[in-house]
Each structure stands twice: as C-alpha cells, then as structure tokens.
Amino acid sequence: MTEPLLEVKGLQAWYGESHVLHGVDLQVHRGETVTLLGRNGAGKTTTLKSIMGVLRKRQGEIRLSGKDLMNLPLHHIAYAGLGFVPEERGIFSGLSVHENLLLPPKVAEGGFTLDEIYHLFPNLAERRNSQGTKLSGGEQQMLAIARILRTGANILLLDEPTEGLAPVIVQRIGDVIRALKAKGMTILLVEQNFRFARKVADRFYVMEDGHMIDTFRADELEGRMDSLNETLGL
Ligand code: ATP
C-alpha cells in the first residue's frame, strides 16, 4: 500500500492537566473519505484540533505526505496543506460571500477558482453579495468549505459539517462531499450524524474515551452494526 497522506501515531493531548487523548492512531490515504465516529466527548474534535496544532499540548507523531507536522509552528501547518473547517465555521460575518472567497491565502497549487466554487455551490453564487451574517447555517457551512477549497489544501478536515442543519441541507452537503470525492479530494470528517456519515465515508474510525477502538471499511459496516449501536447509542 502507498504511503498515507495523513498519518497520526500515538497521539496524546491534554487540556491543561486533563489528559484527553491516550494514543490515537489514524491514517488517511489520498482520495479517501474517512469518518471519525464516537459519542459526545469521545475526543473527535480534540483529535482534529491536535492534528491542526490548535491544541498545542500533545505528544506523538503527525505526518502529512511523510513530513513531520508535530514541531511546525501553527501558522505553518495550514501551509503544509491541511485545510481545517471548524465546527464554528470561521467565516468573516461582516464580509460578503464573494469577499470571503477572495481572502483565503493560497497554500498549494490546485486551489479552486471562483468559477469552480460557484459551479460546485450554486447557492453561494446566488448569494455572492450577501453578508456572512445574512447566510443560513447551511450556506455558512458551504462557504466555510469553499474557503478551504480556495487555498489548495490537499486534505479537508471537517468538524461536524451537518451540525444543526435541516435534512435537505444535509443532503446538499453530502452531494458536495461526493463531488469532491469524485475530484479525488481527501477528506477526514468528524460526524455525529451516522446516517449522513454512512452515505459518504469509504472508511470509519470509532473513538471512545480518547482511544481509537475500531476501524473498518464501508463494505464492512453491516457486520459492525451491533457493536456500533452499543458504542454510539444509535
Ligand atoms: P463532541 O461531539 O461533544 O465535540 P468529541 O468527541 O468531539 O465530542 P471532544 O470535544 O474532543 O469530544 O472532547 C473530548 C474530551 O475533552 C471531553 O471529555 C471534553 O469534556 C474535554 N474537553 C473538550 N474541550 C475542552 C476544553 N476546552 N477544556 C477542557 N476539556 C475539554
């Protein structure tokens, strides 16, 4: 098998004195969509924040295309090609959609052009002059993803992209993820919404109490349903 695009080994992390991740291993290969499942508080968001270096108190190995990210300063990590879309979305609410799309810095070749963004997100094209504050939750989520696509990041880290969104918008986000997969994008997704996750993921990891307790491919999902029901309380 080829070298993973993203490889995490033995990751531990702390909030102050509180030890939250206890040795997390995970790999994402180029072109894969991988979903991290787990109950509230299992450590999914903390895993993403530790990979991004937002949470600094951590130990272990984090590599992107073999390159060590652990010791890089925070402002260099995005430039290594990791594109993080946080749960709180991080768009500029005082700026228009179009302005939000003009601002992201280019971190690598292959960032989406404005035309490509507006083609992938027709609703953003319609709202291009609307201020961030005027957007619906779904539009904000689309804009947050679109901003990362503009940078040329070679892996997208999405933290609960469907959180608080109406079912029809969740479907639209699913369509976007499938379109990105078709373009060969690599995606690591944290998701509470299992019904959504199972429609987009190629592979799953399951977390519990800061540990990775299982991993399996989408075609192995049926056989895992009983244990997943128990772990996730589905
Ligand atoms: P959720 O869906 O609720 O975000 P999660 O799996 O993403 O769940 P995390 O947010 O990573 O879980 O939380 C893991 C643990 O770390 C939990 O016990 C949580 O209470 C704790 N935690 C999260 N954020 C902080 C913080 N800023 N300070 C201290 N403890 C925190």
UniProtKB/TrEMBL annotation:
Keyword Iron: no
Keywords: Amino-acid transport, ATP-binding, Nucleotide-binding, Transport
CDD domains attached to this UniProt entry: ABC_TM1139_LivF_branched
Occurrences of domain ABC transporter (ranges): 6-234
SUPFAM superfamilies xref list: P-loop containing nucleoside triphosphate hydrolases
A Pfam entry, by short name: ABC_tran
GO terms assigned for molecular function: ATP binding
Record keyword Mitochondrion present: no
Family: Belongs to the ABC transporter superfamily.
PANTHER family for the chain: HIGH-AFFINITY BRANCHED-CHAIN AMINO ACID TRANSPORT ATP-BINDING PROTEIN LIVF
Protein name, as recorded: ABC transporter ATP-binding protein
Organism of derivation: Camelimonas fluminis
